Amino acid sequence: MNANPVNDFYAVIAARLDYLEAVPTEVLSTLVTRDGACMWPSGDPAEPEVIGTDSPDRSAAAQICVGCPVQDACLELEFRTAGFATLGVWGGLAEDDRRAACLAWCERRDGGRS
Ligand code: SF4
């Protein structure tokens, strides 16, 4: 167990994705593009803008991804395909949060589960 509550937060996110480990990447991609809440224009002029700065992007992620039925699949797919090169908002997380969660995810997938 991590002594740092921030690291615990990212470890919990990584552990939450364990059930998707055996799902093929193509299936995840199909789920996300078919069912992702952001894949269809909302027509809402107040839709948040992703600007590449943590705090606003955390807020944008919360607004864009809230209620999306495929958040876990989206995050798993992004970790597999982009890893640390991830940009923008995916899986309900801003870039820096996703990179930290990706590190915890990589550690788990490399046998770091306790
Ligand atoms: S989790 Fe967010 S970024 Fe991913 S598909 Fe859903 S709405 Fe889009």
Automatic annotation (TrEMBL):
Show the Pfam families listed in the entry: Whib
Q: Which domain of life is it from?
A: Bacteria
Family matches, as InterPro entries: 4FE4S_WBL (IPR034768)
Q: Where is the 4Fe-4S Wbl-type domain?
A: 37-100
The protein's name in its UniProt record: WhiB family transcriptional regulator, redox-sensing transcriptional regulator
